[in-house]
Amino acid sequence: ARELPGYARRVLDALEDAGHEAWVVGGWVRDALLGVSGHDVDVTTRAPWPEAARVLRAANITVHETGTAHGTVTAVVDGMTVETTTYRVEGGYSDRRHPDEVRFVDDVRADLARRDFTVNAMAFHPARGLLDPYGGRADLAARVIRAVGSPRRRFEEDALRVLRAVRFACRLDATIEPATQEALVACAGELDDIAQERIGQELDGILATGRAAWALRHEFAVLEAALPELAPLAGFDQRSPYHAYDVLEHTARVCAGAEEFAGGLPTRALRWAALLHDVAKPACWSVDDSGRGHFFDHPRQGARTLRAVMGRMALPTEVTRAAAALVELHDLPVSATSVSVRSMLAELERRASGQARPLAFALLDLKRADAVAKAPAFRSYATELDEVGAALRSALAAGPVYRVRDLAVGGEDVLHACGIEPGPRVGMVLEQLFAAVMAGELPNDRATLLAQMRW
Ligand code: ATP
Ligand code: MG
């Protein structure tokens, strides 16, 4: 295992020197066995929390009483925080959300038994080594997610674990053990009882692993239970000779493509947009009088659905706004000209003010991913979009105009040049100039614009 950081060692030692058994537990142990460093350290101890707080303070460690109802205090050492929790088990879960009661216990094994998956149910102490009663180390090595104890009972206790299983499978590139998988599918419907905000956090976590494509292909029953708007995607034919896959498989490919084209660093907004870019396609299919079918207005409807979903899940408004802009504009035609890239920036700016520059690159990544996910032949379109990217970079380097305030003239100039009073007319003059500059009819040149100004 990795070396335990010194600040965490101080917390363990303070507790143990006072005669209280203490272990590092959960995510740090799991990641250390994988050779991944940087996970926050959680400590579990036999000491009741008031005693843990007293002992830590006596060792000159700052303590915040952050979650004492669950036995948790937060120790701060060298600016690093260590959550320190008394060994506990959870009582009944009559509402399938919150344990009815927390019971403190004095055996660390009982504390490990309440944890969700074997890979998360290991404890470590630098002197005593690894405590691994459920075979978490072997499961980790084999990349298997397995519930601790009866999977069915564990998911019935807390349905959020259904989504956590998928998140950890994505994160660890693992498979889900068959009995756990069976219980997962049987209990997915219980996600109805879970607060939308917690579902949103888990979905966001799944997207952040970069393996949403795997989840869509292998755990769709769970995703669909968490986000019912996804349901119509499965088996919905694209009704197009250019599409080789149904909307669900296409979506999985777009999620994978977003990772590929964004070089493994897609933004949160791009990931949400990839997941939901075609969400309204099935609902928007309509056949006109001549018998021809169209997906009427589906990007705009999709953006609307995305806002509803991310809104009820209380995801950050900035991310939601950005993701909605990407979905709404994902079919926007773009070409490698200054006018085209500036109008793309303007469209993004209108929907997600202040985010146009980063979003423009995300939009190209989404468009590339969308193109290559239609059918293999669309690879060449991705190359065209590389040229758009180059045009975008040179436009940005030249100081592009995509907002009225980027114009080389401002409101003061209008007042002087047109001799009008302050008011809405000033904005209208500027809008006209802006439209002309955006259309490439006028250069963004101060003298030229002043000469053109009239009311
Ligand atoms: P991450 O890096 O995602 O935070 P983590 O392992 O730290 O991974 P947390 O959600 O922070 O995961 O929880 C810390 C530990 O608490 C887990 O490793 C697990 O042992 C336990 N745990 C958390 N949530 C649950 C739950 N819903 N049911 C059972 N055990 C849980
Ligand atoms: Mg954690």
Automatic annotation (TrEMBL):
InterPro entries the record matches: Bact_CCA-adding_enz_type3_sf (IPR050264), CCA-adding_enz_C (IPR032810), HD/PDEase_dom (IPR003607), HD_domain (IPR006674), NT_sf (IPR043519), PolA_pol_head_dom (IPR002646), PolyA_RNA-bd (IPR032828)
Species per Swiss-Prot/TrEMBL record: Thermophilibacter immobilis
GO molecular function, one term: tRNA binding
SUPFAM superfamilies on file: Nucleotidyltransferase, Poly A polymerase C-terminal region-like
Name of the protein in its database record: HD domain-containing protein
Pfam family, one: PolyA_pol_RNAbd
GO biological process: tRNA processing
Cofactors: Mg(2+)
Domain HD: start-end pairs: 247-372
Keyword annotations of the record: Magnesium, Metal-binding, Nucleotide-binding, Nucleotidyltransferase, RNA-binding, Transferase, tRNA processing
Coiled-coil spans in chain: none
Domain of life from the UniProt record: Bacteria
Similarity section: Belongs to the tRNA nucleotidyltransferase/poly(A) polymerase family.
